[in-house]
Design a protein that fits this description.
2 copies of one chain form a homodimer. By secondary structure, the first copy, chain A, is of the alpha/beta class. In chain A, 40% of the residues lie in helices and 23% in strands. In chain A, helix 6 crosses helix 8. The longest helix of chain A has 14 residues. Chain B binds a DNA duplex through helix 8.
Chain lengths: 222, 222
DNA sequence: AGTAGCCTTACATTTACCTTAAATCTGCTA
DNA sequence: TAGCAGATTTAAGGTAAATGTAAGGCTACT
């Protein structure tokens, strides 16, 4: 079952942009445009299925910060979205119990990374990502192909998860290095190639992981 | 849906020139001639659909710099246009939160490049460019014709994207070389012809990519 | 010291691309 | 309209660059 994410953002175009991207990444989204409506929604039975909420701080009806306790009551982790990049509201946001904080305008890719981290950390992560005949069991940190366990080394696993969370998006070697190895990594970009080769071999993904010449790699599905 | 760009420029002829070119490039433009009017427009519901604003610094009503916070409030990235090329206002412009800065008189082509970059950076980038029956999937770095994948080599892809981002605008061989191959490229301009030929063949664009004799090429639509 | 994981290196293979050259087209002049 | 010159199209091949892959050695943990 798909992971549900509540998107509480009053700006309709931003809301749509976020939802579109989350849906593309395999989530199910519940867009809500104002604070009071959100508060009401949290009372309903459906709200139990929400795994995470993205909350704009500036909202009509009721502002994001004061909604925090409503979310805490039903145990939904929150990532704040805000245009303010001043330290004061940042501190206030995290202190008030948010799991993370994003300053607008932000990169969708960065948002996806943070979402995955929060879901992981709070144990609400997607349990599984499917690509063709292989399943990535995120909680178990394991991978199977047609039910048969495939042993991946840590880096290979991370690489696969990164590619799989960005299906059909071309990722450059630099991007992959930055996201998996960290910003501080100094070394050859060829390193990526070697790990890609391992994944292709172990999973028989020679066609699934496509090289985008002079650019990077893309995991294809559909 | 087409990307909407707000053009805030008091000189009517310049405004028209910019709008004409942006429309030709596939954007939808909202020309506004004075500062106060712009401020009012940002309060309206329609303004939510704006992806980017081009703002002249010298304006009647209210000047561009002081409008910055209005744009930030509704989270619209700004590129300043100005006749002043002195460092002081440049610094002031960027410091005040603009995404970029163009000094008049500027090349329309350069403006288009910067617009694309800002849209990309702020996550408002177009994901797809359509030309007749072919779709360029920018994130995937792939191209399909009637849904059928077409394999393009890196240079061909770049060339297509460049032409497609400048629909109906004739680009000279020199311009294409500079923009795709880089300023440091030393070699024949005939090189461009070869790649154009490949594109025409692979995409069946014999009529769509038109030769502008003694000048260069133009990708036509409508 | 042994082991597992990972980065690098080096070589093989594949892919991309610039050039060349011949064919074709275009527009001009007679 | 024929002929010509210059411009453009297109195919092909050599070379350069990018990628694939196996193997070795380094590092950190036992």
């Amino acid at each position: 079952m798909k992971t549900k994410i509540l998107v509480l953002e009053d700006d309709n175009s931003i809301s749509q942009l976020i939802c579109m991207n989350l849906e593309a990444a395999g989530f199910l989204t519940i867009p809500i445009l104002d604070g009071l409506e959100a508060q009401a929604y949290l009372q309903t039975e459906q709200s139990k299925e929400i795994s995470l909420a993205l909350v704009d701080v500036m909202l009509p009806g009721k502002d994001g910060f004061s909604l925090m306790e409503d979310f805490q009551k039903v145990d939904i982790p929150v990532i704040y979205l805000t245009a303010k990049d001043d330290v004061i509201s940042k501190v206030q946001g995290l202190k008030s119990g948010a799991e993370d904080y994003m300053v607008k305008p932000f990169e969708i890719l960065e948002l996806l990374v943070r979402i995955e981290k929060v879901l992981e950390r709070t144990g609400r992560g997607r349990e599984m990502i499917q690509i063709h005949d292989v399943s990535i069991h995120l909680k178990e940190h394991s991978v199977t192909k047609n039910g048969v366990p495939i042993l991946l080394k840590p880096m290979e696993y991370e690489l696969l998860v990164t590619l799989a969370s960005n299906k059909n998006i071309a990722l450059s070697r630099e991007e992959l290095l930055q996201r998996i190895w960290g910003t501080d990594f100094i070394g050859e970009t060829r390193t990526v190639d070697v790990h890609i080769a391992q994944l292709r071999k172990k999973l028989d993904f020679h066609q699934v992981i496509r090289t985008v010449s002079k650019t990077g790699y893309r995991l294809e599905e559909l």
